[in-house]
Structures are given as C-alpha cells and as structure tokens.
C-alpha cells in the first residue's frame, strides 16, 4: 500500500510560529536560547508524515530556510483538479537482477577500491579547490559556476558519498546544504538540469540516509521548480524566470526538447510520495498526458520528435533520436512504471510502443571488423515524402539505451528487449575497445548494415568516399573527438551485469575504467579528454558533476555485491540518483 501518499503538509503555519517566537524572544530578551529555538522551529516545520517516524535533524545541523518561500507564492494559473499518484495494490514486478552465488573475490574488491580511490581523489580536489562552487575546474584548479552557484557538485556527489561509506564527508556536505538559499541566484533556473542534479540528488540522499534536513531542502527546491509550471496550460518552460513567474508572465516554450519536459516525472513523483503532497506529481502528470495524447500522432508513431511546441501542444517536427535532447524522456517511461508500482498502465503501453518504434526506426547494426552482432542508436529524419532516413551516427549520450531496454525488458517481462539491450551495450563496448585509448568519442559516424538481423561481413569497399584516414576499422568520421567523463556506457554495462550476472560485463567495465583512468587523470583530479583517437591527448578544463554523481558510482556498483542498491529495490534517475521503489 502506498500509505506515504496520505497526509498533508502543514507548511503554512510555520512562519506564524516563527513570528510568534521572534516576538517572544525580543520581549524576553533571551537571545541565545531563542535563536536556537527559532532555528529548531524552522528545522522542525511541517514534518512530512512518512518521515515523521525517523530521527529529527541532529542539533549540530543549522538549518536555514531559503529567503523566499515559493509554497506561499500566488499561483496565476492554479490547477482545476489536483491529480494524485494512483493507489491500489502494487504490481508484483518480475525480479530484475539475477542473484546467484556472486561472492566478492579479491580481484573484484581490489578493483572496487581503485574506483573508490578515484572518487576520493576527485572529491578531495573539489573540497580543496572549489568547495561550494558548482564544479571543479581540474586544470586551473579553481571553482566554476555552471548551475546557479548552489554547489551542484556537493549535491550531485552526495549519495555516492553515502554509498561509498564516506559518512564524515556526507555529514559535512549536509551541514553545507542545510544553509543553501535557493532564492539567492540572479540567473534563470534550468528546470531540467536543476531537477535531475539538485532535486534528484537531495531526494536520493534522503531516501538512503533518512536525513531530514535534505528533505526540507528538497521541498524548498521542489516548490521553487513547481513555479515553472504556473503557465496557462501548466506545461513548464525550459528556463524558470522567477520575475516572470512571480508576475504571471510565464508561458510554455514553442521549441523545447522532449527530454527537458519528459525527465522531471521521477523526481516530482518521488517528492509527492515522500511528502504526501500531490502537487508535484500533478505537475509532471500533465506533461505525461501531453506526450501520451500525441504518441501515435507524430511523424514516426510511437516516438516523439526531438523538439516540440509545448505552448501550442504540437509535435510536428521531423527529427528523431534517442540521443541528446530526447534520451531521458524515453528512459523515464519504464522507470516511472516501476516508481508508481505498476499502477499506471499508460506508462507500460507508452514504453512498449516507444521501444518498439525506436527499434524499428533508430536502431541499426554497424558493420564491424569481426561482424559482431551489435546494435547502435542512429538519428532519423522524416523527409518531404514521409520517408524515414537514418543517419548511422553514434553518440555517447545514446549509450544509456542498452540499460534502458534491458531494464524495461525485465520489468515488463519481454526477453526480446533484454536481448536488444545486450546488443546495444555491446555496440558501445565495441566503440570503446576500437580506439587505442579505450575510450569512445562523443559523436562518430559508422556504416549501417542492410538489416539488423542478418550477418554483415566487413567490407572496406562499403566505406563511403571521404572516410577519414587512421580511424579504427568501421569508423567513417569522428564528429566530436572528446570524452567528457560521461557515464552512459558504463551505466548500461552496470545494468547488463546486474541483470545477467555474466562476468563478461564486469570485464568490459574494467577495460573502460582502465582507459578512463589512464587518459583523464590530471595532477589533482580527472578531466575531459580532447581527442580520444590518440593516447595522451591534451585535457580540457572540465570535470562535470556527473563524474562523481554517475560515472564513478556506476563503476563502483558494478564491482559491488548485488544487494548494494539492488535494481529490485531502487530506480535511478537520469543523473544516477537512486530512489526507493514503493513497497521496498
Ligand atoms: C496508441 O496505440 C497503441 C497501440 O499501438 C494503443 O494501445 C494506445 O492506446 C494508443 N494511444 C492513444 C493515446 O490512443
């Protein structure tokens, strides 16, 4: 039973209580103890019902609410009828992971330690050179502001600190987070990035640790992001402009990616489940209805175009991909099905329809030297004659697809999807193994076989004219030579390992790790590689927060015991932040 949905927040009363306490303190002139009382009161405002049973924040944590409380802001376009997460008895999902006798051997433990040490090294560098900033600049050894300056790296790495058992650093991070002021930013707020990195990071760390302070900060941030939905049709724009939001001037965008709107549902739904406040779920459920209504009406039925008109609610564009701009919109379909306990059948249907349409229109078999049975994700454009044209381009971002198909295959009991997931994951492993750096470039072109079913012997004459020289066999061009510390390939390997228990996946993860650690290491941390075609390539001054939030976490979990963040108990958001599945 989803009894965590019951109950209501009582946030509204807390300012009155604080005002009362302040008056009392001024009158009684008891400053010290009163300051403590006010902070304590603020910290204890609106205990969410499901969390009430867990311990209150430790007294040494000084919780300071944000300077603007969005839960009290005027709504210009309030919803007519608030939708709540579906209730009922949870579906019994098939088991996702294969368990069995997987004892930790010395080699596995040593490998896991190496990965943990790389995390510690990265974290210590961030602490020393960039603490409180959004990112570490790993070459100039300073901090960067890339995401509103609230310290994105701290929150993005928070659950990894917990999982890797770095509790002192976790507590230090919580003390910092307890004082974040979400209203102290002059920049517009990127709804998608802030949701997946900050809100997802807070929710996950709360789910893992039960630390109340994190929940309070998640609610404050959730209320801030909720303001983005205050538009005439209740669909959010890409950027939350707080001035517009406060003045009723917000509208949805006419060109926005599918992922920007389609990758908010896990975070908002989980926040509703934890707090019992349905409004977050209601907000993203309206996005889902927009996608659901149009899924069969697009130029490639089953798929959603790369960008769409959220304002006029139209989807007539002709570009289709599972890569940048679309990726997590698809990823969230099976994951939402799991997070809602299988109680929303629309998610199941949308998943099947989308993954079948993507299979038939976007997946292709690349011509590879040993004619391996691989798959990659291409890009499709619908031309004037309504013919779908596939560009055989591989994108690192699309390497998540193997894990998505495999997970969906397990949850929905479709072995065929698991097989596709395996072939897709092997496609990305092939790309990594092909280069002497053991790294895959950000974007490359290859040759598509006639069919994804039939053998496709390697034929150098099949390479198009203009094929670049000195590339690994099968590659036509490398459009973007960088490796940006991205997680998607190791993410899919992690899924395949947990789902099958076949050791070849761990070996593949280790080969990736050897390439990654060798090529990205800098004096103090790790950095983007400029050109994966050559060993010892120069670095770029970037270490995005997903390095510690995702890449190192998935690698670490690949060398963990199966029960550590089991896929039967947890569902990861697109920034690798695990949320508790209902009933677990
Ligand atoms: C889309 O088509 C599928 C069958 O392919 C159907 O089950 C589903 O209900 C349709 N969706 C809508 C919104 O009509």
From TrEMBL:
Instruction: Please provide the record's keywords in A-Z order.
Output: Calcium, Disulfide bond, Glycosidase, Hydrolase, Metal-binding
Active site positions: 193 (proton donor), 327, 442 (proton donor), 488
Which Gene Ontology terms describe the biological processes this protein takes part in?
carbohydrate metabolic process; ERAD pathway
Q: Which Pfam families match?
A: Glyco_hydro_47
Kindly tell me the pathway this chain contributes to.
Answer: Protein modification; protein glycosylation
Disulfide linkages recorded for this protein, renumbered to the chain, are 399-428
Detail which positions bind Ca(2+).
574
What EC number(s) does its UniProt record assign? 3.2.1.-
Name the InterPro entries for this protein. 6hp_glycosidase-like_sf (IPR012341), Glyco_hydro_47 (IPR001382), Glycosyl_Hydrolase_47 (IPR050749), Seven-hairpin_glycosidases (IPR036026)
Identify which cofactors the protein needs according to its UniProt entry.
Ca(2+)
Top-level EC class as recorded in UniProt: hydrolase
* Coiled-coil features, chain-numbered ranges: none
Domain of life according to the entry: Eukaryota
A GO CC term attached to the entry = membrane
| Alphabetized GO MF terms | calcium ion binding; mannosyl-oligosaccharide 1,2-alpha-mannosidase activity
Keyword Disulfide bond listed? yes
State the similarity comment.
Belongs to the glycosyl hydrolase 47 family.
This one is known as alpha-1,2-Mannosidase
């Amino acid at each position: 039973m989803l009894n965590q949905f019951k109950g209501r927040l009582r946030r509204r009363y807390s300012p009155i209580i604080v005002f009362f306490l302040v008056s009392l303190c001024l009158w009684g002139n008891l400053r010290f103890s009163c300051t403590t009382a006010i902070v304590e009161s603020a910290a204890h405002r609106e205990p969410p019902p499901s969390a009430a049973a867990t311990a209150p924040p430790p007294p040494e944590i000084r919780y300071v609410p944000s300077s603007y409380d969005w839960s009290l802001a005027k709504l210009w376009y309030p919803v007519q009828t608030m939708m709540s997460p579906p209730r009922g008895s949870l579906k019994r999902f098939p088991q996702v992971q294969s368990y069995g006798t997987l004892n930790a051997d010395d080699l596995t433990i040593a490998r896991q330690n190496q990965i943990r040490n790389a995390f510690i090294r990265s974290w210590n560098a961030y602490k020393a050179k960039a603490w409180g900033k959004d990112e570490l600049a790993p070459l100039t050894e300073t901090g960067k502001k890339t995401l509103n300056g609230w310290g994105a790296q701290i929150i993005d790495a928070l659950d990894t600190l917990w999982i890797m058992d770095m509790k002192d650093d976790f507590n230090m991070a919580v003390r910092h987070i307890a004082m974040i002021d979400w209203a102290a930013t002059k920049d517009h707020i990127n709804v998608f990035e802030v949701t997946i990195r900050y809100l997802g990071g807070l929710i996950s760390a709360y789910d893992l640790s039960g630390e109340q302070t994190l929940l309070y900060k998640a609610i404050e941030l959730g209320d801030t992001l909720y303001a983005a939905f205050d538009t005439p049709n209740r669909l959010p724009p890409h950027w939350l402009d707080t001035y517009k939001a406060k003045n009723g001037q917000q509208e949805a965008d006419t060109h926005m990616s599918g992922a920007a709107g389609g990758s908010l549902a896990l975070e908002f739904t989980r926040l509703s489940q934890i707090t019992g406040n349905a409004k977050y779920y209601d907000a993203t459920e309206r996005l889902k209805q927009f996608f659901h209504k149009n899924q069969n009406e697009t130029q490639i039925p089953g798929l959603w175009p790369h960008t769409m008109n959220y304002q006029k609610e139209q989807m007539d564009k002709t570009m289709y991909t599972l890569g940048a701009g679309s990726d997590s919109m698809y990823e969230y379909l099976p994951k939402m099905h799991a997070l809602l306990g299988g109680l929303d059948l629309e998610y199941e249907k949308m998943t099947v329809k989308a993954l079948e349409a993507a299979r038939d229109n976007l997946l292709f078999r690349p011509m590879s030297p040993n004619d391996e049975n691989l798959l990659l994700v291409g890009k499709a454009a619908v031309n004037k004659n309504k013919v779908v044209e596939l560009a055989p381009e591989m994108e690192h971002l699309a390497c998540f697809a193997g894990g998505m198909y495999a997970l969906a295959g397990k949850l929905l009991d479709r072995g065929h999807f698991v097989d596709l997931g395996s072939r897709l994951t092997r496609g990305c492993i092939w790309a990594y193994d092909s280069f002497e750096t053991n790294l895959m470039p950000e974007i490359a072109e290859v040759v598509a076989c006639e069919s994804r079913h039939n053998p496709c012997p390697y034929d150098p004459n099949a390479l198009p004219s203009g094929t670049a020289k000195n590339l690994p066999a099968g590659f036509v061009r490398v459009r973007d030579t960088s490796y940006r510390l991205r997680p998607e390939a190791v993410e899919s390997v992690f899924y395949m390992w947990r789902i099958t228990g076949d050791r070849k996946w761990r070996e593949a993860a280790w080969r990736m790790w050897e390439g990654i650690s060798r090529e990205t290491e800098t004096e103090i941390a790790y950095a983007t590689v400029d050109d994966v075609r050559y060993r010892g390539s120069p670095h770029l001054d970037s270490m995005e927060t997903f390095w510690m939030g995702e890449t190192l976490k998935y690698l670490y979990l690949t060398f963990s015991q199966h029960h550590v963040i089991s896929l039967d108990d947890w569902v990861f958001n697109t920034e690798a932040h695990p949320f508790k599945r209902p009933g677990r």
